[in-house]
Structure formats: structure tokens, C-alpha cells
Amino acid sequence: MYVDKVLKRFQKPKFAGELKGADAIGEVGNVRCGDIMRIYIKVKAGKIADIRFKTYGCVAAIVSSDYLCEMVKGKTLEEAEKITAQDVVKKIGEIPLVKVHCSVLAQDALKKAIGEYRKKKQI
Ligand code: FES
């Protein structure tokens, strides 16, 4: 069902885990399957200096979260918000069609984390 590249990334994600001292956390649930995603961000000079994710989710959710983290690290908050689930799927290369909805989870959690950060900082 999944190609090798996806399974390898699932076995060794680069951004999995909690981020101590995170500036903001975004948490969302997937109404279709009940899975949960949490994204932690650290922001410096308007850019995402560090990012991690924790999830109770499927292979697609884990892999797309990991790729999303890689894609947004070092980007400004505005740039990070513009990255879509489709961009992540494109970067992954191949994901089963029935699993595309799972890739939206990380996106939503990131947007929530950025929203929380802005609210805290009032920016
Ligand atoms: Fe729940 Fe993929 S099936 S996130």
C-alpha cells in the first residue's frame, strides 16, 4: 500500500516527539478517524526556529507531519501558513488516495499553533 520511501520515513521520522520550551502548541483531531495531532513550534525573529510533532495517527499522518515539519523549519510564519497539504503530498511523492485526508491533520495543527503563538504575542 505504501511505497518504500514512505515506510522508511515512517520508521525513522526526523521531527517526532515533544519540543521542550515550545512557544506554542496546536492540537487537532481528525473527525473521520478520531486520530489526534499535536504540533510544537519555537519561533525566533518571526521564523519557525524549531518544530516537532506528536500524533496518535496512521502512517500517512506521521509521514506527512514529518515532511511538513521539514518544509516549514526556518520559514517565516506567513510562508509556513501558505504551504498546503497538496504541497506536502507532492513532496512525499506517493500516498494512497484514501489517505490524503490524513495529510491535512498536520497542516491544521500547524495553523492552530501559529494562531496560538500570534494570540500570545498579540501579533
Ligand atoms: Fe487517521 Fe490517517 S487514518 S490520520
Number of helices: 5
The domain count comes to 1
Number of strands: 3
Task: Tell me the strand order in the biggest sheet.
Answer: 1-2-3
What does this 3D model show about the protein?
The protein has 123 residues and is of the alpha+beta class. It has one domain (4-121): Sufe protein. Chain: A, CATH 3.90.1010. It has 5 helices and 3 strands; from the N terminus they run αβββαααα. It has a 3-stranded antiparallel beta sheet with strand order 1-2-3. It is globular, with a radius of gyration of 14 Å. The N and C termini lie far apart (43 Å). The relative contact order is 0.23. The model has no long low-confidence stretch (mean pLDDT 93). Bound molecules: FE2/S2 (inorganic) cluster. FE2/S2 (inorganic) cluster is lined by residues 30, 33, 35, 57-58, 60-61, 99, 102, 105. Residues 30, 33, 35, 57-58, 60-61, 99, 102, 105 line the site of FE2/S2 (inorganic) cluster (FES).
Briefly, what is this?
The protein has 123 residues and is α+β, with helices and mostly antiparallel strands.
